[in-house]
């Protein structure tokens, strides 16, 4: 459903949020290890998240990635998905057809439209804080 970059981006943002809630910056190396992603790929993803102002990046020996704690409960999953995948998840055809729309629907168009609407509502209502605190208390996990 999400691109690999988006999956890693969501995991990275959750991990950075958790570290930030504990008053710590985290390094690229630690993030890549924690989310099981190649460092170079993770760096590109984090660069996009920083450009979209979802994460903050500080260079230098005491640098790393963080999210201001007062912003963690304001960041929605939809912002992360949009920063990495755009809005294609809300508009694309369930079968991957280029010409699928209400006037020329694919066989799954109407059923997939309701799923897309539910997904959009979930992404727009779920905060990074909610996911990070679930991870913190052991209710959710980032690794397989």
**Residues in helix, %:** 55-70%
* DSSP strand content: under 5%
Sequence stretches where pLDDT stays below 50 over 5 or more residues: none
The averaged pLDDT comes out at 90
Mind telling me the CATH class of the domain at 4-84 and 127-136? Mainly Alpha
Q: Given the structure, what is the number of helices?
A: 8
Described by the principal axes of the CA atoms, the overall outline is elongated
Taking the alpha carbons of the first and last residues, their distance comes to 18 Å
Label the CATH architecture of the domain at 4-84 and 127-136: Orthogonal Bundle
What is the chain-wise order of helices and strands?
HHHEEHHHHH
InterPro entries: Tscrpt_reg_Rrf2, WH-like_DNA-bd_sf, WH_DNA-bd_sf
GO molecular function: DNA-binding transcription factor activity
Organism: Cerina litoralis
Protein name: Rrf2 family transcriptional regulator
